[in-house]
Amino acid sequence: MSYFIMQQLFLDIPFTLSKEQMTKINKFLVLLEDSGVGEIIWRNINKKNSRGGRPNLNPYRLFATIIYAFSFSKATLREIEDLCKYDMRYIYLMELDSPSYSTISNFINKIIIPNCDEIFSKITLQIMKELNIEKSIIYIDGTKFEANANKYKFVWKPLTYHKKLTQKVIDFLNKNKIQNNLKSDKLLSSKELGNVITEYVKNDNYNSSTSKILNEFMIKILEYEEKERICGPNRNSYYKTDHDATAMALKADYYAGLGSNMHAAYNSQIGVCGGIISTFLITQSRTDINDFIGVLDHFYKLYGCFPKKVCADAGYGSLKNYEYLDKNKIQSFVKYNSWEGNVSGKNPDILRVNDNDDISCIGNKVGVEIKIENRHHKKPGTVFLKFDGCNSCEFRSYCKRFMKKQDEDFKIFEVNKKFEKLKAENEKNLLSVEGIEIRVNRSILVEGAFGDIKQNNSYTRARRRGLESVTCELMLVYLGINIKKLFSFYDSNKTPSLWTAPKNTEPESFAKLSSKRLSKKGRRINDKIFNNKHT
After folding, report:
1. Burial class (CB within 10 angstroms; exposed 0-12, middle 13-18, buried 19+) of 4
2. How many Cα atoms sit within 13 Å of 245 on the Cβ side?
3. Cβ(141)–Cβ(270) under 8 Å?
4. Which residues lie closer than 8 Å to 109 by C-beta, 6 or more apart?
5. Using an 8 Å Cβ cutoff, are 519 and 396 in contact?
6. What whole-number distance in Å separates Cα of residue 257 and Cα of residue 248?
7. Secondary structure (3-state) at 334
8. Distance between CA 139 and CA 422 in Å, rounded?
9. Tell me, what DSSP letter sits at residue 90?
10. What are the DSSP calls for 258-312, one per residue?
11. How far is C-alpha 308 from the chain's CA centre?
């Protein structure tokens, strides 16, 4: 059954639409037809129109019009409504029908939002098939988009105030000799306080003024619980005009109040394969590191498989992420926090993994695993490694830059051996010729995608509110970017190409370390930390 390419007869009006434009739009409609997305719309239209009758508009052409509009950065409902009245491309797509903004809004809410992932995967797969792009290598990066909320009306999660109120209530109950089974080591709930008030009202020593104060406590606790419920367990703030938006510092504030200028925003992660955005994830996280696994899980949900290789910047380098890649047999090209310091030699790691899997320090001394009485591990899965002979080491000042005692002939590190080994494997991958190619392509493809969205399309702020609606909106934005690249292919007949290293390229290596420069840096840091405390 045809959905997008089936046309109805209408009065022949002389179009000013060029033949090239008409051919390009027809190719676009054929792509939608071949993708199978029409079946999703048909299935949902049938559910909505169970009583029978014909819909007012052709839903397939309306869907094509919405997707087409997003590919040219027309993301507002009013813009799409106006374009269907005066732009010949949209008039041709809608076959002379003029949908209102409310019709477009209802279609997005009832058809696109519930099927967001399925629509994106089907169309993206068809685009990648058309452009002959594989899903073997994925490049991951993230950015923040400002939310459509009042930036001055946000609420912090009131855990501190809730703790203080808990202690205040317990002190009040003890002072007035009211039966108190409450504990101060956990937050007081409205249910617990309600039980106390109920028992107190039944008591013969009932006092109205005391009851009034307890009711005031109850109102405040209910307020705190509501704020904590909206925030949820994984974030510390929300906005009154968009409860799903989180207070974040954007890159625009980097040189003017980074960390103090808070904006309502959403965190958006994307994965790019060969220049095409193949997966996405919209979250309320303020950092990228915890969304890495979610991006790859979403990729698996969309396509039923994992990519063979993954490249990401240092914002994603953690033990949890490395273990996930190792478990799913994905070759990792993910940097870690100290990568730039190792490459330049200005701030290198002190510990390294040897070829025989031993861990040595920057002075080539092998660490010995020891146990220390009355000292607990700060993190699970770590061991204590002792390195002797520090006084004769040329890197002593750099290695002990954060230590008060500089004259000890040893140093003890708390080390996660698995993390160090996974880091070493990533280093080999990143420093190889293939790693150089992949790192260069990551900066071109992912940063280029965000640059296209924010600079060329001027999209920096969401139009809709709520996590579900913003996810759908950004899905349409990313799908529009993919279709825009497809139109570029129609114009030039050239598929997106990746950078390849010249034949004489050799694997990269870390810079040679200068003991004199590092020792000087270590002494300067040590003096700043410890000597300035006494001035």
Report:
1. buried
2. 31
3. yes
4. 469
5. yes
6. 12
7. strand
8. 19
9. H
10. TTTS-EEEEEEEEEEETTEEEEEEEE--SSSGGGHHHHHHHHHHHHSS--SEEEE
11. 21
Kindly give the pairing relationship between strand 359-361 and strand 351-353: antiparallel
SS3 474: helix
> pLDDT at residue 535 above 70?
no
Q: Which two tokens stand for residue 247?
A: 């207070």
Beta strand pairing status for 263-273 and 246-248? antiparallel
d(CA 190, CA 193): 5
For residue 181, give the 3-state DSSP assignment: coil
Stretch among 103-112, 126-135, 316-325, 526-535 having the lowest mean pLDDT: 526-535
Output DSSP code: residue 137: E
Give the 3-state secondary structure of residue 448.
helix
Contacts of 294 (CB under 8 A, 6+ apart): 269, 281, 283
Q: How many CB atoms lie within 10 A of CB 450?
A: 17
**Which tokens hold the place of 259?**
């960390």
Residue type, 54: R
* Lookup: tokens for 209: 């003024």
Are the C-beta atoms of 96 and 505 separated by less than 8 Å?
no
pLDDT at 14 over 80: no
Query: How far is residue 334's CA from residue 316's CA, in Å, rounded to a whole number?
Result: 7
d(CA 157, CA 238): 8
Q: What tens digit of pLDDT does each residue of 234-246 get? A: 899 999 999 999 9
Residue 202: pLDDT band by 50, 70, 90 thresholds? Answer: confident
Helical (H) or strand (E) element with 482: helix 467-492
Rounded distance between C-alpha atoms, residue 186 and residue 190, angstroms: 13
Beta-bridge mates of residue 411: 387
Sequence spans of domains, the chain:
1-116+476-489, 158-231
Looking at residue 113, the DSSP 8-state letter turns out to be G
| Sheet with 410-415, edge to edge strand ranges | 368-370, 383-388, 410-415
